[in-house]
Amino acid sequence: MKVFVIGIGLIGGSMAKDIKRSNPRAKIYGIDTNEVHLDEALALNIIDKKSSYGELNLAEVVIVSIPVNAMVLELPKILDIVNSNTLVFDAGSTKGNICRAVENHPNRSSFLACHPISGTEFSGPSAAIDKLFDRKANIICEVDKTNEDIHKKALDIFKQLGMRIRYMNPEAHDKHIAYVSHLSHISSFMLGKTVIEKEKNERDIFDMAGSGFESTVRLAKSSPAMWTPIFEQNKENVVDTLEEYIQNLEAFKEMLKNDDYDSIYNEMNNTNRIKEILNGIPQNKK
Amino acid sequence: MKVFVIGIGLIGGSMAKDIKRSNPRAKIYGIDTNEVHLDEALALNIIDKKSSYGELNLAEVVIVSIPVNAMVLELPKILDIVNSNTLVFDAGSTKGNICRAVENHPNRSSFLACHPISGTEFSGPSAAIDKLFDRKANIICEVDKTNEDIHKKALDIFKQLGMRIRYMNPEAHDKHIAYVSHLSHISSFMLGKTVIEKEKNERDIFDMAGSGFESTVRLAKSSPAMWTPIFEQNKENVVDTLEEYIQNLEAFKEMLKNDDYDSIYNEMNNTNRIKEILNGIPQNKK
After folding, report:
1. Do B1 and B61 touch, CB atoms closer than 8 A?
2. Keywords on this record (chains A, B) (predicted)?
3. What angle is formed at CA A268 by the lines to CA A177 and CA B100, rounded to 5 degrees?
4. What percent of chain B has pLDDT over 70?
């Protein structure tokens, strides 16, 4: 199986590792605008060969794991080159713009729109890890626009990766993911900013930070090059989530100013339900 | 060594476990208003004996790990009973109110005001774990008001627990801890609330949540009974941090509304410095 990974970073690299483990005879071709990453991926044995669009006609599977602004530009070009029986799937964190970018492409049926919900705050091929996708959700959009055999080929790969499949339309994906992913990133970045700004002259104050602070600012280590275009493509939903989040913070602040500690207690007590909700996620079940 | 732990939950219980391991001859007496917790602590071998204020005159060391609203009421009573050579220290997350509550107590010099920066989102004696305090910071306030021998006795215990000591005045503690701890809890609770409210009719949407969401809402599992009085006692500082956080979120939202993606990129890029800052914390060094 000839697998091309376009964008050989955390996601593409981790997929390549898992695919190689499950398919010892798979040959992984890496394509990346970053030559250093390509060399790293080769040295780390994540890819078997550096490649380019000129060889894409050889591909049986193409994984496109690049920032979503590049995705909308590159996917049509990739579909121009590959054969009609080649599976092309993406790993973009937005789905509306990406699906629209290829909706009228003559080779649309070779493409499966995916969002594997998995990652870490790190990036590049050195961040690639084994079993990153095990028990994680993979959201597939507009499956009816993908050729049935191609869809089946993708499901076989996702099964090897251990993923749980969810089908959803791109609009629902983009709306919900704004709440359960994009908002978390902004809350974390702005928390980090608030504290860095305040404590800029007192670096050693971070010595006082416990694991709770670390946990809430972890996502502020994420890549701006990856996240800026995600916020751009999902602008309307993200603005909505931010407005609701800010309203809730304002309300909490007012309760505090008004010494309304019963309401503060109740707010926190109601939100404690998040425990059961998180425990209900299959990936969290032991 | 007779050690009394008043409030035998996550913090008091974890301290008891470490002290017993380092001092096999230490006898741990547990005092708690929650009889179930006392029985649990006894069954878990965290304490050796259930006790009450009536026996506090026997104590060589008293650890007070109760919610900060109870702390300001109980500490003076405890200092009334113990001998003048008994070490009493607290583990409260605020320091101004607690120090003021005992400032004129005739036995003030037996007391050491402490904040061990360690914990998890869980509570109760079953949440107690070994080595919770290893390499963590312990903020000591108003050390000059504590008897020197008593201070030394405390340092010996903290050394056994593996803690790093920092000295600070209560006002500085309360101001900085609002940024690196209290704000994180509110941001997490309000993030949880925003998402639960939005998705209340679509519980299975949480299936889409990845590890990033989990990380940012982890603190929303925390105990409202513990946190409400912390916010009350540190109200002014917490309101300040909330105002700055909300301003930063508003500014981010405006950039997004204005399609100012260069500024969004720069904001995130600047905040990426949190990586180096977190790596600089001694507890994070390998």
Report:
1. yes
2. Oxidoreductase
3. 135
4. 97
Distance CA A221, CA A120 (A): 10
Q: What is the pLDDT of residues A127-157, one digit of tens each?
A: 999 999 999 999 999 999 999 999 999 999 9
Whole-number Å distance between alpha carbons of B90 and B77: 14
Domain ranges of chain B: 2-169, 173-284
Give the distance from residue A12's alpha carbon to the nearest chain B alpha carbon, in angstroms. Answer: 17
Q: Which residue type does A107 have?
A: N
Q: Which CATH architecture has domain B173-284?
A: Orthogonal Bundle (1.10)
Judge contact between B257 and A236, C-beta under 8 A. Answer: no
Which residues in chain B are contacts of A117 at CB distance < 8 A? 208-210
In angstroms, the CA B28 to CA B61 distance is 10
CB < 8 Å to A185, chain B: 212
Mutation pick from B69, B132, B189 vs chain A, by most beta carbons of A within 10 Å, is B189
Nearest-Cα distance to chain A for B244, in Å, is 7
For A255, the token pair is: 């309760």
Taking the domain B2-169, which CATH number applies? Answer: 3.40.50.720
* Sole residue written with tokens 């251990």: A162
Alpha helices in chain B (DSSP H): 10-22, 35-43, 68-81, 96-102, 148-161, 170-177, 183-198, 211-217, 224-233, 235-257, 261-271, 274-279
ipTM: 0.92
Decide if A2-169 and A173-284 have a common fold: no
